[in-house]
Known about the structure:
The protein has helices at about 5-20, 55-60, 60-80, 85-95, 110-115, 145-150, 180-190, 210-215, 245-250; strands at about 25, 105, 120-125, 125-135, 140, 165-170, 195-200, 220-225, 240. With about 250 residues, the protein is of the alpha/beta class. It has 2 domains: about 1-35 and about 85-125 and about 180-254, TPP-binding domain (Rossmann fold, 3-Layer(aba) Sandwich); about 40-80 and about 125-170, SIR2/SIRT2 'Small Domain', CATH 3.30.1600.10. A 6-stranded parallel beta sheet has the order 3-2-1-7-8-9, sandwiched between helices. It has a 3-stranded antiparallel beta sheet with strand order 5-4-6. The site of zinc ion (ZN) has 8 residues, from loops.
Amino acid sequence: xxxxxxxxxxxxxxxxxxxxxxxxxxxxxxxxxxxxxxxxxxxxxxxxxxxxxxxxxxxxxxxxxxxxxxxxxxxxxxxxxxxxxxxxxxxxxxxxxxxxxxxxxxxxxxxxxxxxxxxxxxxxxxxxxxxxxxxxxxxxxxxxxxxxxxxxxxxxxxxxxxxxxxxxxxxxxxxxxxxxxxxxxxxxxxxxxxxxxxxxxxxxxxxxxxxxxxxxxxxxxxxxxxxxxxxxxxxxxxxxxxxxxxxxxxxxxx
Length: 254
Ligand code: NAD
Ligand code: ZN
């Protein structure tokens, strides 16, 4: 792997993007850190502070559900107002040119949609935390409604009005099945693009981390933009170990 200075790296990236008919971005928590949302695995990341609540615990205990919602409302106070960053805006600009048929994300923060992607073109591998659904009948609930019930009951998470099922943020927890349609769509996008850009992911969470490999095997050029090294750096065509905002801001439409 050859290390380029930032300017050269950006020029190479621009060339790859220009030559490509289709570009598929694959994003992780690193694209949202400049928006004030911490990632999981950087020093000071969320995992260094608290253990995740696994899906099995969520369905097994009211206490775990209450704790999970308590954390979610605390997060809302800290990150609820987060706005798209330079990385999000650059990808949205590229999307508007028609080069991006769909974006694959591990993020749950809805910021790709906020930045201009049509919801149908955002493939969310780990779901979305800005709304909730009933685990049994899939009825959608808004956080404000849940928060009101939660407060009125002294901190008990409410159950589904239609079927009594448990209401959970529309995210995929550890131990929960991956969304099949999203996995199929991500696979198809990875297999058919000319350039696959893994941005801000430590590439250690499986099965999501398999998509860069799938894309590379199917003949795409693989670009990795991440501050830290990843296990896939060796097979990538271009690796940029730098700040995502700095690397992608030249792609924001002027
Ligand atoms: P991760 O925390 O494992 O890795 C993030 C990577 O981004 C790190 O390697 C870090 O060095 C890099 N990074 C952080 N800020 C950067 C910047 N400004 N420029 C360049 N690189 C930067 O995240 P992951 O791979 O996405 O896996 C964590 C899982 O947690 C995801 O699957 C996702 O579901 C979830 N998550 C989502 C959010 C969110 O929605 N914003 C936040 C935290 C975690
Ligand atoms: Zn229900």
